[in-house]
User: What shape does this take?
Amino acid sequence: MKSNPDFAFRRKAVEASENLETGGEAHESAPANGEPVVVNQVTEEAGPQSAVSDAAVPRRSVAWDFKARGEPFLWLFGGGLSLGILMIVGFLALILYHGVLTFYPVPIEKVVLRNGTVVAGALTRSETFKPSEEIIAALPEEIRGKIAEAGGVVRRSLYQIGNFDLYNEDFRWVSEYDVRETSTPPDLYWIERTEWGPFVGSIRLLDLGGKIVGGSAVDPAMLRKEHDAAARRRGRIREIERDEIARINQILEGDRLRLRKIELAQGKESAEYRRLQEEMKRRTEELESRHRELSKEAEGIRDLDARFTMTLADASGKEKVLKLSDVVRMYPANTLSPGEKLKIYFSRWWEFLTEEPREANTEGGVMPAIFGTFCMTILMALSVAPFGVMSALYLREYAKQGRMVSLVRICVNNLAGVPSIVYGVFGLGFFAYVLGGNIDRLFFPERLPSPTFGTGGLLWSSLTLALLTVPVVIVATEEALSAVPTSMREGSLACGASKWQTIKYIVLPRAMPGIMTGLILAMARGAGEVAPLMLVGVVKLAPELPIDAVFPYIHLERSFMHLGFQIFDVGFQSRNSEAAKPMVFVTTLLLIALVFAMNVTSIMIRNRLKRKFFTGHF
Amino acid sequence: MAQKTHTEHGTVYHVEPSPQGTLLSIEEFNLWYGPKQALFDVNMTVEKGLVTALIGPSGCGKSTLLRAVNRMNDLIDGLQTTGRIMLDGTDIYSPTVDVIALRKSMGMVFQKPNPFPMSIADNVVYPLRVDGIRDKRVLKEAVEEALKGAALWDEAKDRLKDNALGLSGGQQQRLCIARAIAAAPDVLLMDEPCSALDPVATAKIEDLIDELRGRYTIVIVTHNMQQAARVSDNTAFMYLGKLLEYGETSVIFTNPKGEKTMEYVTGRFG
Assistant: This one.
């Protein structure tokens, strides 16, 4: 045994107790592994005979050893960490499960109830419940018996029946005992429409500009061809109205504003005003004739389009006529092959990511929200980075360290604890009303009283969130700067570099990984904040994207859409919470994926920088 | 050569003068770190083209004095000085002096090698770059000259673009020396340059100092007396912030004139 005093002590304890037991000479019989527990047991088992040696050998309980070795703390810390990880993984798994499965096409069931009503819809979910006394009393004998057998518990299923325009509801609960028979007829179509939500039913006939095709003669390939043509017509109408006519309106509006600007500056009687007025009158006439042309073209297409319709029948036979161009997607839900289902699945994802929303954000895509979130986060990162890094540089490198600087540092740290909605109020009050109001009065007086910058928009939202996240960047940057060793700074100064040159060439590059960590944290925090945005520029539905092809290309005064706000709006403020639920999950999944992608990119950039500078930490 | 020994204000002088003249003249120099005085009335000259060693026990102020020459002490809060250090007729502590320009005319090598996290070539030309020299040809020539001067050219010429942190300790210190001489400074200040190196690297650096003698004026702080004896022409012995003896190295180590010097040199303390 080594000369470790602890072991020697224990060995002596063993020997002492053994001496008492055997009464003989102590021999070198220290337990081979020196296990403290064993020693203690031996000591304890020695019992009353060891009373003498007890005085010489102070007892140590098993519990003390256990705690001293730290086992309970190992389990505690490890357990805490595991619990945290489990919760995160569980949460992500839940989002992934619901989000990934949402778009997969489900079969449509046709349920005939006991009272003869026919319900057709997609099964959304089912649950068990205990019907109340009155309901059970109203049921016939055999069913009451079956319910009683099952312990009063009944199963019911929720079907998405669509056809809101016919039924005034799109979901319906069907209790198990009410069902007479269920089937999955092959001719039931699931039809996604531009308004009123989905339609569940079969095709009775097609009217293709006068040519009638009966329901049974409908061939899927032909249907698809006609639908594609109708979709193209719809697209062309939209292009005419959204792009071309809108552009004409934009030019007219621009002219009007210029005129008004001159009027404000020089008055209605000035020569400039009258000249401009003449010029504009000419242009207005040109544009208005073009406007009439385009409108006529749109009218023509619309008229043609109206002649291509489908007559659909729902499960109970009620008819509905639908224009082919009003159909976004349709498929016979019960006769799809797995390959076709996957195609629909991916096309729905594609629509989600690239299209605009419809039906009060419960259908369609979230592309404007993705775009808005992305723009705002980039703009926020661009504002917070220089601002935060420069402040930290000043605090750490230039300011004389004393009470004043400590006070400033405390204030900056406390900024991080301010509730985010307070930032929203500040953003609205100061940025939008004060700064924006003044900018409007100075640069855009012709648009008043309609505010340009004097209300929420992309710029103010980004600045507000930059303010929210600046403490994170300042703290991380300060830490990174103080981690640069003094020897390196001294080396640079001894070479004749000025303080600024030392910072620029030596300190900042070396601190860059740490600064990037701060930026990553700031971006992740900012991309997810919703509360302040609600006050400073995010809207439920934005008419245009903040970046488009019109000069000055980036429109900082426009309102925009945001994924976080989208989740809130869809989840809590939509007419139909059941229909909205899947959208909430998918949008959440998308937001998490977006933040994750941004973080991964930043981490990759940071790792590149780390490798360049061999730093051991950060 | 018999030196003119004289004593002034408690310091014994027997300096070997340089044929090139005196470069620095430290006159009545006192220095305080806040309330604590670190240097007491130091008077000495640094001879041009010669190697001057500063020796003494720990805490005697030799590093402080060295750093006072290129005003690196200015980085410390609460610094106060009285007295003058004359360089080319100007007091470097006068308020009108541009400290950065001063430091450009001096090179400093520290105890622990501190190469920058850049390539070897970038490290060497750093003093030139901060001076505004961007001409690639000039920089390339400077790299070669400095590395040859620091006896690192053969080992480094194939990996000028590699990160300097990949060099060994001795090589890094030689790189720092190359960096210090890249801008052709007047004075080379070395603060215990070999204390973090192994004997082989130390020998290489001492050889280097020998080669640099004549072209550069070198002031080296060392706690290794054998090194001071091997390498320097004049040695200054400091004790508790005072300069006790300053003179020709061979005399200091064989026949020191001061009592404390004798005790230190023979190893009775320190």
Notes: The first strand of chain A starts at residue 108 and ends at 113.
